[in-house]
Write the structure tokens for this entry.
Amino acid sequence: MALLLGVDTGGTYTDAVLVRDEKEVIATAKSLTTRQDLAIGVGGAIRAVLNQSGVAPEQVSLAALSTTLATNALVEGQGGRVALIYIGFSENDLDRHGLKDALKGDPALVLAGGHTYAGSEAAPLDAVALEAFLQTEGPGVTGFAVAGVFATRNPAHEIEAARIIQEMTGAPVTCSHQLSAKLNGPKRAVTAVLNARLIGMIDRLIGRAQDTLRDLGIEAPMMVVRGDGALMSGEQARERPIETILSGPAASIVGARWMTGVEHALVSDIGGTTTDVALIKDGKPAIDPAGARVGAFRTMVEAVAMRTTGLGGDSQVHLTTSGLAGGLTLGPRRVVPVSLIASEAPEVVHAALDAQLRASTIGEHDGRFVRAVPGVPVAGLSEREAGLLARIGMHVHPLGQILRTRMEHGSLNRLVDRGLVQVSGVTPSDASHVLGRADAWDREAAEKALTVFARRRVGSGDMVAKDAAGLAQMIIDQLTEQTALTLLESAFSEETESFGLPENELARHVLMQRALAGHRGLVAMQASVNVDVVGLGASAHSYYPAVGERLHCNMILPEHAGVANAIGAVVGRITMRRSGTVTVPAEGKFRVHLESGPVDYQASGEALNALEAALAAEARGAAEEAGAKDIHVHVERDIRTAQVEAREVFVEGTLTVEASGRPRVAHG
């Protein structure tokens, strides 16, 4: 008998589940995610699931972790301070593929060097300029990204730059060629920058999770879910945290398939921060061929084809004041629900809300609070940011007491982006408490906060809502509407036929909206989502029935929908993929591009076989290192040829090798 422990660390809750022999869920548990020390939440969930099941720690055969923290961080714009070393490119290339947005004002050095398409050196690496940059910009950087032109053809300059950086700074370095074998340098650079930004956060999570397992007496190996739903070792995830983006959502799809057996369905997973939608087709989730998209960024990471939107139970509620009627929007930023922060600091929160309710005028920051997050490394702050962080300290404060000038708004946002500070405000979770759909936290505080918010004025001069209950229903209705739009966009994006408009416009088109409402005039219109939808997440049973009604579709809500990610974490497989290319730099010369540099052969078949052997050894080795057993290797060859004078000529060959197996477990 194998007992498998799955843990999912989300933005609000950490879930744990015990599965027996990959067949039966025997216990589930939840604990609040504790960002100041993730081990507290992880440990709480694991202890609860062990106590509930009566399983001794030493009986656990395998532990697996999925997390939405990397996804949430990118959606919310959080992470450490990074620096990009951009080798062989021009300054103009910093504007391509959103690279400047990914850097968010962090330093970048455009450096001479790089290689040609054929893998030969285009220009010498300017090591002197790199060393000078590191002396001035290195302090305060938590991770470096290195991207060289045509580095996937020859990574020598990336490797040398990484060596110099590590010798001078000791900081972790991400080389773009290690993340993708594809061309497109700016896009690889974006991926490397995001990886470098996540390294500190994911390293802390995995390290503390491993510490917690040991402290609890669990000696089983720990796996981490990748964005494509496959498993890798904790050590591999620490080196390549970018591969954990969409880890939680990917695990949820694996879990949805395991729980329901669906062959063809949309899966929609609502968490505290995001809603993630993907299509299961023929029993398998599709892999996005263009690379995972998270928020505004398109990466080169292989991941489940998924639409991730900043919409969750803890999404910030915004008032739209334009127009006479006004309205509400949710997200994309997550805030701490007032009902939750009140359960942690009741005196401060209730005293502030009571004072705001007594006031004759409405303050700009009424109903909002702020607190610092202890334990996050502080580096690279401006004087104003450092002063604001010191003023906040380790206590909960009404936001209006902290922000003294308009200039401090920007400083606060940057502290939130760095994960150093959390803001609290009204959320759908608070609305659920007011309506009696949830009772985990402080309902009275939620009601006071919504009453304060309801007094705000829209364009007509009227209040947003007459009372807290009215506002709460407006918030839940808005969540239903935005979730329905997200599902419609996902459905349109998977349609085989083009409708001539972007999917976001199609979902909001007046004809689609009237058809969903069942318009009957001179023209009769009706529309529905023509596939089952599997609703996942702790709040799925509360929110998703209304979404099913809005879209006129069959909504499946599995028994363990709230811990689908944790289930998916332990029923997945270890899969390692490696890709490489054979090019023709000159007639009769076939070049294999390897990590160690280019190698030439006289025949295409000989070159392809050499590349396949190298990639298979690398993929199998990575799978074994991750703890896989019974490894199966699958090879795909994509050969491009051309007709030249009535004969077929080899142009280029790309090989992808996949090594896959189940994790090795100890049977108790």
In short: The chain has a mean pLDDT of 90.
